[in-house]
Specification:
The complex is a heterodimer of chains A (about 500) and B (about 240). Chain A has about 500 residues and is α/β, with parallel strands linked by helices. Chain A has 3 domains: about 230 residues, MetI-like fold, CATH 1.10.3720; about 150 residues, D-Maltodextrin-Binding Protein, domain 2 (3-Layer(aba) Sandwich), CATH 3.40.190; about 90 residues, Periplasmic binding protein-like II (D-Maltodextrin-Binding Protein, domain 2), CATH 3.40.190.10. Chain A is built from 20 helices and 15 strands. Chain A has a 5-stranded mixed β-sheet, sandwiched between helices. In chain B, about 40% of the residues lie in helices and about 25% in strands. The two termini of chain B are about 35 Å apart. The chains are: A alpha/beta (about 500), B alpha/beta (about 240). At the A-B interface, helix 17 and helix 18 of A face helix 2, strand 6, helix 3 and helix 5 of B. Bound molecules: adenosine-5'-triphosphate and magnesium ion. The site of magnesium ion has 3 residues of chain B, from helix 1. Chain B: GO terms for molecular function: ATP binding.
């Protein structure tokens, strides 16, 4: 479990590995995908429901990829993809569009699981992806290019990448392409677009291989890098949709053609890819930059509130499950005891991230599709509840047998003895380990960002993708978590002191 | 008619035979002291009387009713038998008064007022009223045991079972507890008392039951039991050790 703080690079690598694993587990199962598709196709009329306003077009995007998509200081999603999708939807007669933040690598699995209706996130059209999802026509030409730090002259061609450390974003085309065309490059796989450019700028990587538009936009905004060599590929960007929604895809293609014909498409590309490219590199920034926090305060606040909501709800669920689990483990009924042990052993024996992804990406294949918040709270509550189960059981068992005997010798039932005599004493003993457990829960809550919940950690990442100020943002976000965990520690300690009058 | 009676009860823990067939009866108002060497099965016997321990075979009959295995019937009968433990077993998270009040409310369904009135009267009877609002951790061993006796009495039991109530106490407070028990006996309470206090057995008990090796080896009035004429060899060696 990710309980100990990890270095950012290591954490990124660990998470990248997990994301890939879960993609394999939940995503790339063609048989299951087909079944899902057919199910949905049978319902039919998706386009009609979108047009009548009954249904909202849910668009999955990783808004950390300017200029295609990123999040501004107010927390609004901006970028070429965002505006183009809205314009296309309007022309296609679709009434409601909503954008959902998710890691890039999760978009295709989310489409297959029908968690979203469309992926708009600078996704390259590829044969492999086309096998499991559909693409619209090309809406923007892309292509991989190489970027290096300004002072670096050691790379001018693909051949020069041999033996060098190349930063790539997990789940993007660059990964596969480099493995095939420059197998001697050492890939450094990172989570976000920003981490990729920062790696090159800070010398953690020798070069970046990514889509040319994104690299050029970074240079225009922040400087410190330059594009070298010729374009490596010339692929094209398309919007991704589930195979079952051919009608929606066709409607988008028609709308795109209309926009190209009437000039509005050209106006949009100018706005995002040309106007800013001329603005030149920004000045070097100080090491710690309070403005980053001040400017994004609204966003941080809402992330903090979401985090607190997630923590409070999972904490309640955890207590509930832990009490039920503990009672089951102490029960006189064999099947209940067995159930309690199975719960503890399965949940404690598997990584939390796997459970989280299983609930959010895996269960839809069994027909159980949960909103992110529900899935996140459920997974966190389940996970923490297994620890609370053991805390509860241990505390109850630590209460002297004589206590039950005294109560029962007065004629109290077993249940009454537990309720009035044993559990109140056990509760006090539970408090210190419960406090620790809830501190763990608070820290684990950062992981629900992976299933699109806009909590503190995710907000941090979106701010960094806009400001490229990882140092300030992670420091500040870390501080907020530190305060949260200390509040929990303080609260349990206070309750304990209050209750412990009799010890 | 006997208030509490056992028929051939035996108790074994695995291969270890602890009680080997005990027939015992106590009349209302009687005080029986149970004595004997350590490990002889005195506690086990006492705990079988209110089924804290289930006998392996044999029957226990209380007030004409068999203490059956069904829990609800058992709870009902247990409420009419008080028990006092060597280690007090007060509820540490409740004040002395609350210890005495909780079972009354929970089992007898008394209102809080009723239970507190009765509780205060009993705490006064055992000399603990001043400490009604103290938590057990603020009480000495002797004080704890007197509160525990009040808790058992609060259920208005027909018989009181004591398992070495003074063995965990400092010598100077043993008498506080024995005095309370002596008063109880004088008031006509039916009592079974496992004890090492020979003075108490001699002065207060109507009968002395000697348990050795899981059997009742003697059941005599105290004056006979302690008389020099008692020629039971086991009793003589036992008494020689404790007196
Ligand atoms: N729960 C148990 N499991 C196994 N053996 C037990 C258990 N309880 C008691 N015994 C054994 O039964 C025997 C009788 O124990 P018991 O406590 O009744 O003796 P006692 O006469 O009360 O002794 P003492 O004077 O030391 O209290 C002892 O050998 C003891 O080890
Ligand atoms: Mg004993």
């Amino acid at each position: 479990m990710v309980r100990a703080p990890l270095g950012r690079r290591r954490a990124a690598a660990v998470l990248a590995g997990l994301v890939t694993c879960v993609m394999l587990l939940t995503g790339v199962s063609p048989a299951a995908a087909k079944e899902n598709g057919q199910d949905n196709g049978a319902q039919g009329g998706k386009l009609e429901r979108l047009r009548s306003g009954q249904a909202t077009l849910r668009v999955g995007t990783d808004a950390t990829f300017p200029p295609f998509e990123f999040t501004d200081a107010k927390g609004h999603k901006q970028g070429f993809d965002i505006e183009l999708v809205r314009a296309l939807a309007e022309r296609a007669g679709i009434k409601k569009v909503s954008f959902t933040q998710m890691p890039f690598a999760n978009i295709v699995p989310a489409l297959q699981a029908h968690q979203v209706d469309m992926g708009a996130s600078g996704i390259y059209i590829s044969d492999e992806r086309s096998r499991v999802i559909d693409f619209t026509d090309v809406y923007y030409p892309g292509g991989l290019a190489m970027f290096v730090a300004e002072k670096n002259d050691s790379v001018t061609s693909l051949a020069d990448l041999a033996g060098k450390r190349i930063a790539v974003q997990v789940g993007t085309k660059s990964v596969e392409w480099l493995k095939e065309h420059q197998p001697r490059a050492h890939l450094i796989t990172v989570q976000t677009n920003e981490q990729m450019f920062s790696a090159a700028r800070l010398g953690q990587a020798d070069a970046v291989v990514t889509g040319a538009p994104a690299g050029q936009y970074f240079i225009a905004q922040h400087g410190g890098l330059k594009q070298v060599g010729k374009r490596l590929t010339d692929e094209n960007y398309g919007y991704a949709l589930p195979k079952s929604d051919a009608a929606v895809t066709a409607a988008f293609n028609a709308a795109l053609q209309k926009m190209k014909d009437d000039g509005s498409y050209t106006a949009l590309t100018k706005k995002w890819f040309e106007a800013k490219s001329g603005s030149g590199a920004k000045k070097e920034q100080p090491l710690l930059n309070p403005r980053t926090i001040v400017d994004s305060w609204g966003q941080i606040q809402s992330g903090l509130l979401v985090s607190i909501a997630v923590i409070m709800m999972s904490l309640c669920l955890s207590l509930l499950l832990g009490t039920a689990g503990g009672l089951a483990r102490l029960s006189g009924l064999m099947p209940l005891r067995w159930l309690g042990s199975a719960y503890v052993s399965v949940i404690r024996g598997t990584p939390f991230v796997v459970q989280l992804f299983f609930v959010y990406f895996g269960l839809p294949q069994l027909g159980l599709q949960l909103p992110p918040m529900v899935a996140g709270v459920l997974a966190l509550g389940l996970y923490s509840g297994s620890y609370v189960t053991e805390i509860f059981r241990g505390a109850v068992q630590s209460v002297d047998r004589g206590q039950i005997e005294a109560a029962r010798s007065c004629g109290m039932s077993h249940a009454a003895a537990m309720r009035h005599v044993v559990i109140p004493q056990a509760f006090l003993r539970m408090l210190p380990p419960l406090g620790n457990e809830f501190v763990s829960l608070t820290k684990n809550s950062a992981l629900v960002s992976f299933i699109t919940i806009g909590e503190l950690f995710m907000v941090g990442q979106t701010i960094i993708s806009r400001t490229f100020d990882a140092l300030t943002v992670y420091l500040f976000i870390g501080l907020l978590y530190y305060i949260l965990t200390n509040i929990i520690g303080f609260a349990t300690h206070t309750i304990e002191k209050k209750m412990a009058v009799y010890v | 008619m006997a208030l509490l009676e056992t028929f051939e009860i035996t108790k074994a823990y695995g291969d270890h035979q602890v009680l080997r067939g005990i027939d015992f009866a106590i009349e209302p108002g009687q005080v029986v002291a149970v004595i004997g060497p350590s490990g002889g099965g005195k506690s086990t016997f006492l705990r079988c009387l209110n089924q804290m321990e289930r006998p392996t075979t044999g029957r226990v009959v209380f007030a004409g009713e068999e203490l059956s295995a069904t829990e609800s019937n058992l709870d009902r009968l247990r409420a009419r038998m008080g028990m006092v433990f060597q280690q007090f077993n007060l509820f540490p998270h409740m004040t002395a008064l609350r210890n005495v009040v909780l079972p009354q409310m929970n089992v007898l369904g008394r209102t809080r007022e009723e239970a507190e009135r009765r509780g205060r009267a009993l705490l006064e009877q055992v000399g603990m009223l001043a400490k009604a609002d103290s938590y057990p951790n603020r009480l000495s061993g002797g004080q704890k045991q007197r509160v525990a006796i009040a808790r058992a009495l609060a259920m208005d039991p027909e018989v009181m079972l004591f398992d070495e109530p003074t063995s965990a106490l400092d010598p100077e407070v043993v008498h506080d507890v024995l005095d309370v028990m002596t008063d109880l006996a004088k008031d006509g309470m039916t009592m079974v008392v496992v004890t090492h206090e020979m003075g108490f057995a001699r002065k207060v008990a109507d009968r002395v039951v000697f348990i050795d090796g899981g059997k009742i080896a003697a059941d005599l009035p105290p004056e006979e039991f302690f008389s020099d004429g008692n020629d039971n060899e086991r009793i003589r060696t036992f008494l020689a050790k404790v007196l």
